[in-house]
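Subgroup meeting minutes
Present: P.N., E.W., G.H.
Scribe: E.W.

1. P.N. recapped why we're keeping a running log of single-chain structure predictions: easier to compare across weeks, and new members can see raw inputs and outputs side by side.
2. G.H. added today's entry (245 aa).
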Amino acid sequence: MEKLENLDNQFPIEDVELQSLADASGAVVNMDYFPVNVKTLPKNPTTGNQFTASEFLNHIRKNINNFLDTDLSEFIPSTLTGHDEAALWNSSSPLGAIIHINIGGGAGDGSVVCSFYSPSAWIFSTIEVPYSFIMPDWDGQHPVSGNREFGYTQNTDGSYTFYTRGVDRITDPVDAAIAENLMDAFANPDALWTSYKQGIYDFVQSNGGQATVPKTTDNKIYRPDWEKVKAVLNGSRPISDLGCK
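Output recorded in log:
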């Protein structure tokens, strides 16, 4: 937050700030979970040694574009901040790294900040940065507002579940009205995270590991009404009213 505040001071006309779920405009909340089960961890193609789960997650983080369909989204360290975001993102402690996302499909590009990092997970939070039609990573507002986690959990049978999960809403009221009335606003993101699962599976299978073939039925996708979610968050309704499990 201090980094964003300092950047905001560098751009007195434009805003640099976190985009919260509560300040977005979408009538629905996207809540999703995309898992893939890894029975045997793969080998590091550089060393030939088997990855630990944390090492594999770090490899995914530093090479994320190799694990998803970049026609849908490509993750590139930002160049607008005056900091070496690429060095920070590729370090062992990427907290605070700002990433530009080249988003396909006409939704508009967006930026995120690494707002949490641990050996088993990291979180991207959406941010607003200065906008320029000419500069490629001056993205303005991110099309959605919220958070997305990438991580793994270990299962009782010794296998691992690598996943991404997110909660977000469409940011702009006009975009929300168009998307929610004329199209499936989350079709491309769903396809992106499906490709992420497939990318993990393909890498594991190609590098001496073993994973379960990804299935769409493993995904958990729920899109409740924002007013209902807000009521649960402020304590006026029980979480059971959301109806998700």
